[in-house]
Amino acid sequence: MSNICPKCETNNPDAVKFCGECGTQLPSLEDIEVTETMEAPKEELDIKNEDAFKSLHQNFCYWMMENIKTAKRRKNDKPSFGQAAKVADIILKVAVYYCHLCKSDILHYLNTAVDTPILKHIKKKSAMTELRGIQTVAQIDESLYYLLQKQILNEIDEVFGGKILAVQYDDIIWRSLNR
Predict the structure, then answer these.
(1) Nearest Cα to 3, choosing from 34, 112, 24?
(2) Long-range contacts of 36-44 (CB under 8 A, 24+ apart)
(3) pTM (2 d.p.)
(4) Of 79, 53, 83, nearest to 66 (Cα)?
(5) What is residue 2's DSSP assignment?
(6) Rg of the chain in Å (alpha carbons)
(7) Using one digit for the tens of pLDDT, what is the confidence trace for 62-98?
(8) How far is residue 80's CA from residue 161's CA, in Å, rounded to a whole number?
(9) CA 93 to CA 99: how far, in whole Å?
(10) 24 burial via Cβ count (<10 Å: 0-12, 13-18, 19+)
């Protein structure tokens, strides 16, 4: 086990009290506060219908837009609805579709995680005039996000005969785009 310097992030042996690289005093194990991870009760994640799911999804997106800064770390650089929705869709995909942390009966409510390559794919395949000038997910607002999800459902019906879920679409398209 090693002790990581809070200043320069150098790995130091546990026994040393000061960083061998920069000389910063290292925290002792007694100084490190251990927090307990709480697990949300599954009842709170039980989605009764599509409107409840959409409300949960929107609330997460609004919260993220208000409270999280983008990776660019610019002052007041807040994510767009499209960026927040992509994060929500990926989190839900992992939790519900891959890890089965919620009841599987909400699978048909999950959306496609739209990133920039998938956005470009949709632009090529559709005649959506709303996408003119849109180059990245950062430019997607709430109304355009839901229009994209409808377009994806149309493509699922046309191309896949409605035999896949929206949550599966991004995996399939990603594979085809990255061949």
Answers:
(1) 24
(2) 42/101, 42/102
(3) 0.71
(4) 79
(5) E
(6) 22
(7) 999 998 877 765 556 789 999 999 999 999 999 888 9
(8) 32
(9) 8
(10) middle
Contact present, 2 and 20 (Cβ < 8 Å): no
Euclidean distance between CA atoms 4 and 142, whole angstroms: 42
> Burial code of 134-163, b = ≥16 C-beta within 10 A, e = fewer?
beebbebebebbbbbbebbbebbeeeeeee
Convert the pLDDT of each residue in 147-164 to its tens digit: 999 999 999 999 999 999
Contact 104, 96 (CB under 8 A): yes
SS3 content of the chain, % helix, strand, coil (to 5): 55, 5, 40
Residue 127 identity = A
Determine the residue type at 63. W
Task: Please tell me what DSSP assigns to residue 128.
Answer: -
The answer to whether residues 123 and 131 touch, using CB atoms and an 8 Å cutoff, is: yes
